[in-house]
Amino acid sequence: MTARIIDGKAIAQEVRAEWKIRADALKARGITPGLAVIIVGEDPASKVYVANKVKACAELGLHSEHIALPADTSEAALLAKIAELNADPKIHGLLVQLPVPKHIDGDKVLNAISPDKDVDGFHPINVGALATGNMRFAPCTPYGSLVLLQKSGVSIEGKHAVVVGRSNIVGKPMALLLLQHNATVTICTSKTVDLAKYTRDADILVVATGRPKMITGDMIKLGAAVIDVGINRMADGKLCGDVDFESAKEVAGWITPVPGGVGPMTITMLVANTVQSAERSAGI
Ligand SMILES: NC(=O)C1=CN([C@@H]2O[C@H](COP(=O)(O)OP(=O)(O)OC[C@H]3O[C@@H](n4cnc5c(N)ncnc54)[C@H](OP(=O)(O)O)[C@@H]3O)[C@@H](O)[C@H]2O)C=CC1
Ligand SMILES: Nc1nc(=O)c2c([nH]1)NC[C@@H]1CN(c3ccc(C(=O)N[C@@H](CCC(=O)O)C(=O)O)cc3)C=[N+]21
């Protein structure tokens, strides 16, 4: 058996076209959705992300601001910049690239972003809204992973979904989204004893550990849908996922590649959340 490859790039284009219609409708009413991204210091992963984001905004005709602050920016200066953008009517979506340098308190930063502009969905109010089923902004990577499953025709209801990883930005919100769609959800972590016991029982397997190729074909159930969130840059400069694609594709029913899987969807859901935020601010 060879898995169907879930083409994240193609699905991202399709979803962007849907959101472009909504962005155009707003523009016809004189509102251009605007996204601001703040990046403090240099982080290679964030650089790729920012470049792709600028491209996606241009594609949809959104206003975008990219604010690059030096690595030694004080916490107070960053919070002041956030306050300024919170009050800027041109900006409907605002995010600070993570991780922030060590001298800045990441939680303080997430708390400072207006929950109404928090297109990452990381503010505690939005985290709570997701957990209680009143979602406002779904975190982009889990949201994009969910849309990949839906667009690929993978049914979620009643299925056993196993999420490997419990970070606040990927694993935990992914588990909540799958639960909301009536999957039976298991969350595995680095402390899980006999990880393969769980992964082998997964109809849907989402992997977000940051451990290159740690999930191999023998850990996957025949016909499972495998979503590989991992983005790891190898010594040769190439990217690879947390799943060993070569062995996994022989067992899985569906699988996402890296690159070209979840990554392009993360960017797409970010612009989608920005358009949605602009709609909300216009009372639509
Ligand atoms: N495609 C995209 O758009 C994005 C991709 N990423 C990528 O996804 C990956 C994960 O990111 P992120 O969630 O931020 O990472 P974190 O490092 O914050 O979290 C990793 C999680 O994986 C768990 N873990 C680590 N090793 C194992 C193991 N051997 N077995 C089981 N669980 C394990 C950890 O468990 P514990 O909690 O016990 O330590 C932790 O919960 C990275 O490769 C990152 O680059 C991230 C964001 C967006
Ligand atoms: N506040 C915040 N929110 C985030 O969502 C966030 C963040 N900070 N910090 C960094 C990580 C990383 N991340 C990526 C998203 C998309 C690609 C992406 O577009 N990947 C493409 C291209 C990869 C390439 O060509 O190098 C792909 O996988 O095909 C990469 C990385 C979001 N993150």
From TrEMBL:
Pathway: One-carbon metabolism; tetrahydrofolate interconversion. Residues 139-281 form the Tetrahydrofolate dehydrogenase/cyclohydrolase NAD(P)-binding domain. The keyword rRNA processing does not apply. GO terms for cellular component: cytosol. GO terms for biological process: L-histidine biosynthetic process; methionine biosynthetic process; purine nucleotide biosynthetic process; tetrahydrofolate interconversion. Signal peptide: none annotated. GO terms for molecular function: methenyltetrahydrofolate cyclohydrolase activity; methylenetetrahydrofolate dehydrogenase (NADP+) activity. It catalyses: (6R)-5,10-methylene-5,6,7,8-tetrahydrofolate + NADP(+) = (6R)-5,10-methenyltetrahydrofolate + NADPH; (6R)-5,10-methenyltetrahydrofolate + H2O = (6R)-10-formyltetrahydrofolate + H(+). NADP(+) binds at G165, R166, S167, I231. Residues 6-120 form the Tetrahydrofolate dehydrogenase/cyclohydrolase catalytic domain. Its EC number is 1.5.1.5, 3.5.4.9. InterPro entries: Aminoacid_DH-like_N_sf, NAD(P)-bd_dom_sf, THF_DH/CycHdrlase, THF_DH/CycHdrlase_cat_dom, THF_DH/CycHdrlase_CS, THF_DH/CycHdrlase_NAD-bd_dom. Pfam families: THF_DHG_CYH, THF_DHG_CYH_C. Keywords: Amino-acid biosynthesis, Histidine biosynthesis, Hydrolase, Methionine biosynthesis, Multifunctional enzyme, NADP, One-carbon metabolism, Oxidoreductase, Purine biosynthesis. Homodimer. Catalyzes the oxidation of 5,10-methylenetetrahydrofolate to 5,10-methenyltetrahydrofolate and then the hydrolysis of 5,10-methenyltetrahydrofolate to 10-formyltetrahydrofolate. HAMAP family: THF_DHG_CYH. Belongs to the tetrahydrofolate dehydrogenase/cyclohydrolase family. This is Bifunctional protein FolD. The gene is folD.
